Amino acid sequence: MSGGAGAEAARVTPVLDVRGLSVGYGGRGGVTQVTHEVSLTVAPGEMLALVGESGSGKTTTAQAALNLLPQGGQVLAGSVHLEGEDVTDAPASRWRSLRGRRIGLVPQDPAGSLDPTKRIGDSIAEAFRIHRAAPRRVLAGRVLELLERVGLDDPARRAKQYPHELSGGMKQRVLIAGAIALGPGLLIADEPTSALDVTVQRRIMELLDDLRRESGTGVLLVTHDLALAGDHADRVLVLQGGRVQEEGRADVVLAAPAAEYTRRLLADAPTLATPVHRVARAPEVADAGVAPELTEPPCWRCATSR
Ligand SMILES: Nc1ncnc2c1ncn2[C@@H]1O[C@H](COP(=O)(O)OP(=O)(O)OP(=O)(O)O)[C@@H](O)[C@H]1O
Fold first, then answer.
1. Ligand 1 pocket test: which of 21, 22, 25 has the largest number of ligand atoms within 8 Å of its C-beta?
2. Which GO MF terms does the UniProt record name (predicted)?
3. Is residue 294 part of a domain?
4. pTM for this model (two decimals)
């Protein structure tokens, strides 16, 4: 776990405040409710992990917070506040402005999320262009700064490359660069590392940790991976069948879960048996092209088993 926003964070306005959110899917034939009065907050600089088995409502909750529910999805009750602004019923035009500027999205599939016909630099510049957020003369420099910020070596060369010339981890770094381009207060990361191998996965999570520490960006992490949540999130919120089962500090909930459902999830989580975060790093092999970096994070699992 890292970040340490904790109690201090509770006193400031959350970057995301979801209250009593119920979502359903359907049409004329009727609506099936899939989440039930879910409430959560993400403070500046904090990472909250939404965990739960497949179908528990993690993605639906994150999509509702972004106002990006798929067709047929509808908010049945509840509210969403972004940095104190009630955006529950905000019009589409307001949401277009909020996404990118105030909320960044880190997608699950880096390979499928970049335009294969666009150079990396142009993809990142797109965020500035859409929001008219940087004059043309400074755009190239801003793109290079971002590529450097997310740990890519030789930013000038990377900016000219196409997605197929980059590894999966590097593509995810590019997408993170695009997501943070306009300095949003909140990043929503839905299984951001599930398509990556373990070593690269860990370095991407460390990058997210660094960004939130340096910029105070809050992160809502959607993951089915309890080990990942335990190693990186400040707090976890456990969903089952669209209902909150428990919520609390990640180290506390995962070391001593109060809910029977969380105990079962932990018992069924094979990765918890192996401290994957302690796997020896071989960045030059697994994540070539990424600048060397980072120190060893503290380990809640080792601490609790000592
Ligand atoms: N587009 C959709 N249309 C109808 N039902 C949907 C749709 N998307 C999700 N659901 C339903 O909503 C419920 C919650 O799904 P959701 O994808 O939010 O769960 P999840 O916890 O993110 O699962 P996973 O980890 O598999 O992504 C499930 O019952 C699912 O079948």
1. 25
2. ATP binding; ATP hydrolysis activity
3. yes
4. 0.85
* Residue-wise pLDDT tens digits, 15-53: 999 999 999 999 788 999 999 999 999 999 999 999 999
Residues 199-232: pLDDT tens digits? 888 888 998 999 999 999 999 999 999 989 999 9
Write the ipTM: 0.98
243 CB less than 6 Å from ligand 1? Answer: no
- Work out how many domains the chain is built from and give that number: 1
> Measured in angstroms, how far is the CA atom of residue 285 from the centroid of ligand 1?
36
- CATH number, domain at 101? 3.40.50.300
Rounded to whole angstroms, the Cα distance separating 18 from 86 reads 10
Contact (Cβ atoms closer than 8 angstroms) between residue 173 and residue 204: yes
Domain limits at 273? 6-108+187-305
CA distances to 64, 92, 202, 281 from 78, rounded to whole Å, are 10, 18, 35, 44
Centre of ligand 1 from the C-alpha of residue 59, in Å: 7
70 lines ligand 1 (CB under 6 A): yes
Residue 141 in domain: no
